[in-house]
């Protein structure tokens, strides 16, 4: 735990020199205590509840329905057996985004552009709930630090790098596919 936090401080200052946005995003990725994780979920739940109230008061039915579905997913996750697993509220939101993206593609394949546009507007609402994502440059710096720390030498060590990156970057990147591509570039160089 101490190694992760000192590494976070070191990398945060490195990123802060080039891009100030990286500093806040990287610190968010290192909330390692269980109490901080619970508080983050509670804060996100409270933010969603407040958004539901404001959207209901302003008469935005689509936004209200999307926010209620996200809240239902989070509550279901908490009450089900999946609560024992390490699934965050932001992961549930990403899951909802992925579902809607797949639906939009299916609607377009069926020549239902109107329904595809509705799905895309719901995706925008869900994206507004997620924290800002790290840039590719910050991901590259973090992967470089991980590579040096574990002594990775080539593409054969991609699995080791991705294992560490997955634990360190889980909430601050929307797609581990992007992290994988950056890691492949760095390890093949």
What does this structure look like?
The protein is 79% helix and 0% strand. With 189 residues, it is mostly helical. The chain folds into two domains: 2-32 and 133-188, Arc Repressor Mutant, subunit A (Orthogonal Bundle), CATH 1.10.10.410; 34-129, Hypothetical Protein Yqey, Chain: A, domain1, CATH 1.10.1510. α1 runs antiparallel to α2, α4 packs across α5 (89-109) and α8 packs across α9 (176-188). The longest helix has 25 residues, at 34-58.
CATH architecture field of the largest domain: Orthogonal Bundle
**Helical segment tally?**
9
Shape: elongated
Beta strands, count:
0
CATH topology of the largest domain: Hypothetical Protein Yqey, Chain: A, domain1
Major sheet details: none
Family: Belongs to the AIM41 family.
Subcellular location: Mitochondrion
GO molecular function: carbon-nitrogen ligase activity, with glutamine as amido-N-donor
Keywords: Mitochondrion
Pick out its properties.
9 helices; mainly alpha; GatB_Yqey_C_2; 0% strand; Altered inheritance of mitochondria protein 41; Hypothetical Protein Yqey, Chain: A, domain1; 189 residues
């Amino acid at each position: 735990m101490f190694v992760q936090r000192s590494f976070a401080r070191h990398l945060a200052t490195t990123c802060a020199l080039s891009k100030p946005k990286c500093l806040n995003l990287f610190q968010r990725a290192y909330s390692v205590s269980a109490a901080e994780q619970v508080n983050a979920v509670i804060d996100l739940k409270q933010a969603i509840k407040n958004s539901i109230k404001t959207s209901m008061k302003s008469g935005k039915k689509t936004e209200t329905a999307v926010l209620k579905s996200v809240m239902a997913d989070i509550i279901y996750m908490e009450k089900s057996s999946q609560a024992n697993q390490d699934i965050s509220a932001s992961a549930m939101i990403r899951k909802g985004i992925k579902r809607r993206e797949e639906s939009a593609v299916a609607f377009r394949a069926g020549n239902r552009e109107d329904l595809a546009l509705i799905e895309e507007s719901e995706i925008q609402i869900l994206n507004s709930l997620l924290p800002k994502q790290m840039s590719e440059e910050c991901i590259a710096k973090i992967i470089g630090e991980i590579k040096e720390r574990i002594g990775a030498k080539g593409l054969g060590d991609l699995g080791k790098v991705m294992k560490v990156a997955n634990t360190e970057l889980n909430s601050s990147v929307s797609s581990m596919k992007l992290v994988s591509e950056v890691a492949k570039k760095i390890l093949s160089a």
